[in-house]
Design brief:
The chain is mostly helical. It has helices spanning 23-26, 43-46, 110-118, 120-131, 138-151, 156-170, 179-185, 187-200, 208-225. The protein is elongated, with a radius of gyration of 44 Å. Residues 70-82 and 86-92 have low confidence and may be disordered.
């Protein structure tokens, strides 16, 4: 309780008795509420995926720009984006095999033996086109073969490279001698052997690469149109 004269109990004058009293000055300012910064919580923490598998993204969460995958669900895939499955094709391993004919079995295909003896650049051009799967034309390879033969007289330095490609394609052994030796001493016989090898494996060099592709497509279409075994077409 205050004193009747308006002073405080200890005798000091009350601020209300002061003519210079300003209630706004003596009032204590109300502290402003603290401002907290909004912390961005990653999607992985907001929606954890402890058990793996697929986690559907809730509505309201932006999916990102079109064409860019989101990394909301890792699903045990590490840094791989969600929805992208990396599948690597199995490596192609050429199983080792043997030549279907011998080096000196030229007369097994008499027509090719005569053409090779008279025009070796023709046989080589046909072989090169099929071995390179159409990347090298028969005419270009044949002309280059003939040019090397006329200028240097040793076309084996060019033809032996395609024998190596043929061996790698089918896993054939380097027999009866290394490729450059075989073509150096038995050029015509080596060309005939390579021609027969392609023909025995279903690729006829005489019709070119495009002809072989068309023939294979026609064979596949005929197999698809053929009736199943044990059934016959009703007329």
């Amino acid at each position: 309780m205050g004193r009747p004269d308006g002073n405080r109990p200890d005798g000091s004058p009350s601020p209300r008795m002061n003519n210079n009293y300003n209630p706004m000055f003596h009032a204590q300012a109300t502290p402003e509420p603290p401002v907290y910064e909004k912390q961005m919580v990653p999607n992985e923490q907001k929606y954890p995926n402890n058990g793996g598998g697929r986690v559907d993204q809730p509505s309201g969460v932006p999916m990102g720009r079109p064409g860019q995958p989101t990394n909301i669900n890792t699903g045990g895939m590490g840094s791989q984006p969600y929805g992208v499955q990396m599948v690597r094709p199995p490596p192609v391993i050429n199983q080792p095999s043997n030549w279907t004919s011998g080096l000196f079995d030229c007369m097994n295909d008499g027509e090719n033996a005569i053409i090779t003896f008279c025009f070796p650049f023709v046989t080589f051009g046909q072989i090169a086109e099929v071995v390179d799967e159409g990347a090298t034309s028969c005419g270009t390879s044949g002309m280059l073969y003939g040019l090397i033969c006329c200028l240097f007289g040793i076309p084996c330095i060019y033809s032996c490279t395609f024998r190596a490609k043929l061996r790698n394609k089918y896993g054939l052994p380097d027999a009866p001698a290394p490729d450059w030796i075989t073509h150096c001493f038995c050029e015509y016989c080596a060309l005939c052997q390579e021609f027969r090898e392609l023909k025995n494996r279903g690729l006829d060099p005489s019709i070119g690469w495009i002809g072989n592709v068309q023939r294979q497509r026609m064979g596949q279409q005929q197999e698809m149109m053929a009736p199943p075994m044990g059934q016959r077409m009703m007329g």
